[in-house]
Write a structure and sequence with these properties.
By secondary structure, this protein is an alpha+beta fold. It has two domains: about 140 residues, Alkaline Phosphatase, subunit A (3-Layer(aba) Sandwich); about 120 residues, Gyrase A, domain 2, CATH 3.30.1360. It is about 35% helix and about 20% strand. Strands 2, 9, 10 and 11 form a four-stranded mixed sheet that branches. Helix 3 runs parallel beside helix 5, helix 4 runs antiparallel to helix 5 and helix 6 packs across helix 7.
């Protein structure tokens, strides 16, 4: 799959044609390169479907936080990259028959602190950890065994109980450890019960789910302090119900006659909508196509 996902011949072909392909790549920005790949493919290959992932904005919002001058400056650049891709389609003569969907898979929230639920569980004896060193000689924690585990998604966290150990007694131990931490540190996260987690369509295997309060995310430390400063200033992975956390969707071009606000859209509806624009359907998809005509 890796060969097909990143064909060496295509990369070499584009690098030969575009001497600037990698000229503007650095540790913080690579979207100019991705845009150049897209421009070439549109011009030379005329694809029926093209997916372009521009994510320098994500990187900048993690580093500097959302709604900062740095994030807005990168958003301006991203807008320019989208314009270049549309211009490439116009020059190729395909723009009149092209439907364009600008999709974001999450919003962003500012964050300054990290909660480490693994450290909370380890302190309660629910994760047994030994100290050691990795292959490079750096100190690290090794998990010997566990009864409860924290599956992190940055702004929220699923608490999983080990298969075969999902007893009410273990869940009570988890609750006690979490409640003890909240008594010490204050309401830095909220707790969702398993029934509510399933109702919201989140992780069906979670015994509990935690969501960080404003300014808080989750980290993966298993030892040391369970609450630390965060070097990054933005995070995602929160539950999507908060209005200022919602993502963006723009649909325009061929097959999109509708104008105005689409309202709140489920992300699971976007794939079927794009498929319909291609006169296709996604078999067994959970979502439904949006009405764009």
């Amino acid at each position: 799959m890796g060969t097909n996902a990143r064909p060496a011949e295509l990369a070499a072909e584009i690098a030969t044609r575009d001497r600037e392909l990698y000229a503007h790549v650095n540790a913080d920005e690579q979207d100019d390169m991705r845009t150049r790949f897209a421009e070439h493919i549109i011009r030379e290959k005329r694809p029926r479907l093209m997916l372009v992932h521009l994510f320098d904005l994500d990187h900048f919002q993690h580093d500097y936080g959302p709604l900062t001058k740095e994030a807005f400056a990168m958003l301006e650049k991203t807008d320019g990259y989208v314009g270049r891709i549309l211009d490439a389609s116009a020059r190729a003569g395909t723009l009149p028959e092209t439907a364009v969907f600008i999709v974001s898979d999450h919003g962003f929230r500012p964050v300054r602190k990290l909660i480490h639920p693994g450290a909370i569980l380890a302190r309660a004896g629910l994760i047994k950890v030994s100290e050691g060193k990795d292959a490079k000689g750096n100190a690290r924690a090794f998990v010997e065994e566990w009864d409860a585990w924290a599956y992190l998604t940055n702004g929220s966290c699923s608490i999983m109980l080990r298969r075969g150990g999902r007893s009410p007694a273990k869940l009570r131990e988890v609750r006690a450890a979490l409640n003890d931490f909240l008594r010490r540190e204050g309401p830095v996260f909220s707790v969702l019960e398993a029934k509510e987690v399933r109702r919201r369509g989140a992780d069906p295997g979670a015994a509990l789910m935690l969501e960080g309060a404003e300014g808080y995310g989750f980290g993966g430390n298993l030892t040391g302090e369970a609450l630390t400063d965060n070097k990054q200033r933005g995070a995602h992975g929160y539950l999507p119900m908060t209005p200022d956390y919602r993502a963006s969707l723009i649909a325009s071009g061929a097959s999109v006659a509708r104008r105005g606000d689409l309202g709140t859209v489920r992300m699971t509806d976007i794939g079927p909508t794009i498929a319909r624009a291609l006169s296709l359907s996604l078999r067994d998809a959970e979502g439904k196509p949006l009405r764009l005509r």
